[in-house]
Structure formats: C-alpha cells, structure tokens
Design the sequence.
C-alpha cells in the first residue's frame, strides 16, 4: 500500500437520538511496472497504479437508554486493470453491515463502581466480486464480531477488561492438491486434483 486517504463526517440528531455518518476511503498499491522479455532484453511496456476506494453511509439509532443499533451500506470500487488492456479488471460491489451495542447502568460492587458493555457487528454482507465479465468470482470478507468489556472505577482510576471474538463467514480460498495413493511424491493420472483446504470457489454464499 502506497497512498491512503480517509474523509469522514457525521451528523447527530439529539431530539430523535440518532446519527448519520459517511466516509470515503481511498488507497493504491503504488506504481506497478509491466515489462516484456524479447530477444534477451527487458522492454518496458507500461506503468499503472492499481487503486480501490470505499464509500460508506451509516445510520445509528438509540432504541433505549441502554441499547442502540446501526446499519451501514458500502459501495466498493476496485480497479486493478491496465488502461491499455482490452479486458478491464474492475469490480463494483455493494455491501452492507449491521451492528448492536448494549451498555449497562453503573453499579456498585465491593468498593468498585462497575459498568459492562456488549456489542456485535456483521460487516461486508454482499455478493461476490467479479473483475471480468466471465472471470473468477471472489467472496467479500464477511465477518462477525462479538465482544464485551467491563469497567471498574475506584478513586478516579478506571480498569477495563475487554474481549472480542471474530469469525469469518465466507469460505477460505481453496488449496488444491492430490491424495498420494502410492506415496511416490508425484501426482499420477489416476490421482485426481482435489481441494485439501478451504472451499469450492463455485459454491453459494447463502443457503436457504
């Protein structure tokens, strides 16, 4: 990653206890040089700067004094193509997310004031990214996060214990191989190629 830019804004509605927010994230991978090897010579062909940017819009609402939720929509533009190449490697994807947050009231326990919080979030819910019209499809990194924290306050000092779990909700990229039946270390014609780890990239993300 070479260049990174982030613009964020938000607007809070105190009367309705809600808030809007938006952000723009841009980054590129720096200069990429494309060369060819002809007659034992390296010939410079082109120079490109692959880039991506995200546009997020989110709305949060305080449902009660202790619980709030938010939804997020995201537009992703990924451009990894060569301008001089006929087949453009560009992907445009829409995704969304949902999150919730619970905060307890401050309580007293064994000379401490304490407060606990719980939260969850699911991000990048959407379809697959395709860079060519009939090209390979890639899963968005849909993630589930669940966590909580406890604050202990005494004599103007705060001690916080926090824990978070993250789970990837899409199949991992497959790792292909074969089952070596005769233990010779080489793949024979009879030994078909199988997926050793991960999932089939042609599988569905959601099942009814």
Sequence:
């Amino acid at each position: 990653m070479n260049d990174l830019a982030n613009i964020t804004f938000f607007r809070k509605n105190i009367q309705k206890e809600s808030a809007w927010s938006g952000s723009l994230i841009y980054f590129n991978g720096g200069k990429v040089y494309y060369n060819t090897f002809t007659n034992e010579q390296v010939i410079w062909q082109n120079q490109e700067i692959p880039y991506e940017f995200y546009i997020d819009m989110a709305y949060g609402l305080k449902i009660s004094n202790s619980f709030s939720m938010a939804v997020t929509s995201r537009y992703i533009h990924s451009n990894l193509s060569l301008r001089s190449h006929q087949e453009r490697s560009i992907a445009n994807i829409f995704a969304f997310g949902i999150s919730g947050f619970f905060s307890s009231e401050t309580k007293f326990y064994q000379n401490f004031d304490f407060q606990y919080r719980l939260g969850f979030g699911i991000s990048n819910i959407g379809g697959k990214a395709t860079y060519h019209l009939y090209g390979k499809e890639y899963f968005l990194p849909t993630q589930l996060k669940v966590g909580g924290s406890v604050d202990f306050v005494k004599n103007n000092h705060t001690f916080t214990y926090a824990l978070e779990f993250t789970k990837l909700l899409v199949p991992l990229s497959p790792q292909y191989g074969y089952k070596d039946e005769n233990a010779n270390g080489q793949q024979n014609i009879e030994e078909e190629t199988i997926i050793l780890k991960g999932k089939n990239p042609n599988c569905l993300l959601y099942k009814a």
Remarks:
- Residues 172-208 form one domain.
